[in-house]
Design brief:
This protein is of the alpha/beta class. It contains 17 helices and eight strands. The longest helix has 19 residues.
Length: 334
């Protein structure tokens, strides 16, 4: 099972680039940029990671961004993630980034997206990993700020595949961003939003995502299982759910393997992802491996989740089908 998980060609659809910042790179960039980190060593920094809910994670995640200042910093961050992912047989990734986490610190939108984009091009050419970029809005900032950032993105539209919504969900429902997401859709972008596990009013938020925003996918969405009606809508609309087992464990003390079994049993399009792998100390393979151990998933179920990720990805049909054929070939040979 371990070699099956490690070697099957995979897609990752829910990973925050800023959440892939490894402590060693953070220290190197801090030194280069003259930024102070209040820890002696990368190990001491990791030892201070203490997450028990979304806000406690987010405060450490935003503090971590302070070392990212110039275009090359964003290039290095992105290239390092894509190298690591490729070493785990991830052949395709959809990458979130949080421009407001940088523009609010005086780093320009152009600096951020250009560094990321150049690394995506180089990683595809040199490492053979394809990727597309998703601009995430911070839901604890205003809708006006989100709209301003969507406007900043207009000259770079060819570099983006979609928009998402992340950060602190409490009292920041999807409908706060109805106009922003309508404009993004009109610009030809795909739509997704976080419905993190066990958040206040989560069922209302999931319902708004589906029926008001009309998202193309839902990030997390585990609590949808509490409502038969929501599950039916998710199935009817063939919406993918990007579940992040190790990330969930910080909030609900389980990898949500029971819930993932239920989704598979209901034929919901569940996928497995790493979310913020440098902080949660688990990339995609570790998420699959730990989940498999907790939930005793068999190879057919692992294959379904891997295939689901390609199916609900935002690739054209021909490219999707070619990746799905690679998965089938791997399974046939294994
Ligand atoms: N930003 C980065 N990781 C996140 C998560 N898991 N939930 C919400 N916002 C995030
Ligand atoms: Zn996330």
């Amino acid at each position: 099972m371990q070699s099956f998980i490690e070697n099957i060609p995979k897609a990752e659809l829910h990973v925050h680039l800023e959440g892939t910042l490894e402590p060693e790179l953070s220290f190197a960039l801090a030194k280069k940029n003259g930024v102070d980190i209040p820890f002696e060593t990368p190990e001491a920094l990791v030892a201070a990671y203490d997450f028990h809910d979304l806000p406690s994670f987010l405060s450490i995640y935003y503090a971590g961004m302070n070392v990212l200042l110039d275009e090359d910093d964003f290039y290095q961050l992105t290239y390092a993630y894509l190298s690591k992912a490729r070493s785990q047989e991830v052949v395709y990734a959809e990458l979130f980034f949080d421009p407001q986490g940088h523009t609010t610190r005086g780093v320009s939108f152009d600096t951020v997206i250009t560094g990321i984009h150049k690394a995506q091009l180089d990683a595809e050419e040199k490492l053979g990993i394809k990727s597309q970029l998703i601009l995430c809005f911070l839901r604890d900032m205003s809708a006006e700020s989100a709209m301003a950032h969507l406007e900043m993105a207009e000259p770079y539209l060819d570099w983006l595949v979609g928009v998402g919504l992340d950060s602190d969900e409490r009292n920041n429902p999807p409908i706060k961003f109805t106009e922003v997401f309508a404009k993004a859709k009109a610009m030809g972008l795909k739509l997704t939003m976080h419905c993190d596990v066990n958040q206040l009013n989560t069922l209302t938020h999931i319902d708004q995502c589906i029926n008001t925003i009309e998202v193309d996918r839902i990030d997390h969405g585990v609590n949808s299982l509490e409502s038969d009606a929501l599950c039916e809508m998710i199935k009817d609309k063939k919406l993918g759910l990007t579940v992040c087992p190790v990330s969930n464990r910080f909030v609900v003390q389980s990898l949500t393997s029971d819930e993932i079994h239920s989704m598979l049993d209901k034929d919901m399009l569940v996928t497995i992802n790493s979310d913020d792998p440098a902080y949660f100390r688990a990339y995609l393979n570790e998420n699959f491996l730990e989940l498999q151990k907790e939930g005793d998933f068999d190879q057919a179920q692992i294959t379904t989740m891997v295939s689901n990720a390609f199916k609900v990805s935002w690739l054209d049909e021909a490219t999707k089908n070619s990746y799905l054929a690679q998965v089938d070939d791997f399974v046939a040979q294994h």
